[in-house]
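Continuing from yesterday's entry. The apo prediction looked reasonable, so today I'm repeating it with SUD included to see how the binding region is handled. Same sequence as before; SMILES copied from the compound registry.
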Amino acid sequence: MTTGTQAHSVTVRVPGKINLGLSVGPLREDGYHELSTIYHAVSLYDTVTVQPAERWSVHVTGPWGERVPTDESNLALVAAKTLAKRRGRRAKVDPVRIDIDKHIPVAGGMAGGSADAAAALVACRELWGLDHVENDLLELVAASLGSDIPFLLHGGTAIGSGRGEQVTPVLARGELHWVLWAGEGLSLSTPEVYAECDRLREEAGVEVPAPEPSGALMAALRRMDTDEVADALCNDLQEAAVSLQPSLAEALAAGLDLGARGALVSGSGPTVAFLVGSQTEAIDLSVGLAANGPTGDIVRAVGPVPGAQIVHHRSGPEPTRPRTDPDRPGPLGPVVG
Ligand SMILES: C[C@@](CO)(OP(=O)(O)O)[C@H](O)COP(=O)(O)OP(=O)(O)OC[C@H]1O[C@@H](n2ccc(N)nc2=O)[C@H](O)[C@@H]1O
Ligand SMILES: Nc1ncnc2c1ncn2[C@@H]1O[C@H](COP(=O)(O)OP(=O)(O)O)[C@@H](O)[C@H]1O
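Holo prediction written out below.
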């Protein structure tokens, strides 16, 4: 898109995700597992702001800020630098300072690092005026950096296949209400959870079939019937996550006892997602968990919500109004108002 004036800063809001279904196939030769997953973006957001600077840097604030690396390994910084390399010969780009306001649990199975990477791609494309970088190229760059990143460009509810990087939107109407629980001091490494899943399967001597989307879950989403969705929630990584972090079993049981319609570990965990029927039920469950559940951070959220969206673009001395309606699910990439 053409901005006319040089942008001084661009702010992008990006959601975390849960996996409503996660079917994990056999280990591939490249070290990844073939997947069929149903991603679902929820209203727990990080905010990523980029602005031109003398040198590349990243600064992180917010409740999870202290757990995020600010060195060269930060995924938002990696994403920005990768886009800078892929910009094409004529486009000139300056280094950027990246500010992340971190609300998505770190190493929690909600793809927070991937979310920041997706946000950095959308923000830098806008800041640098890379109108020629089409969504397809942005998706390619995203996929090269992490399996979950392309989904965070889309948001909504979508099937992920391949290693998770191939994303197809699911037509689902209505809203689901969630209570998210992130246990105090808990974190799990994604590769370790996949490895534990392989180990448990080998130990049980099970033949691993090709992954496929759950028909029951797809049907429940078409009807958007909360109880049907609750019954169809499934995650092949849950057993492995609980094996590595046994306290998760207690958290899952506590939420169900306190009235959740359904419960599952989000992706590789350890965040637990509880499905409830309404905002009132979400408040009741949050209060119940805070009073009687295991210690952790408790957040209410709804889904689906759109992926990485520009919410503020400062191109002159005065801040401009938000350019998008961040609550309206939209197509891939920013929607210019
Ligand atoms: C499990 C999931 C479910 O959505 O998310 P999280 O729970 O981590 O957020 C994803 O598959 C995580 O995706 P992401 O975190 O982007 O993983 P990547 O950086 O691509 O890969 C990190 C490592 O995870 C393992 N991996 C990842 C994806 C996949 N399909 N098979 C794998 O075996 C590999 O060991 C890989 O080296
Ligand atoms: N911007 C970032 N936000 C969060 N984690 C990041 C970021 N950049 C790099 N990381 C690293 O990525 C790892 C995975 O974090 P995250 O994406 O939050 O979890 P998950 O893979 O479970 O969804 C963390 O251990 C952290 O060190």
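Comparison notes:
- The domain at 176-303 is CATH 3.30.70.890 (Alpha-Beta Plaits).
- The CA atoms of residues 172 and 222 lie 5 Å apart.
Will overlay with the apo model tomorrow.
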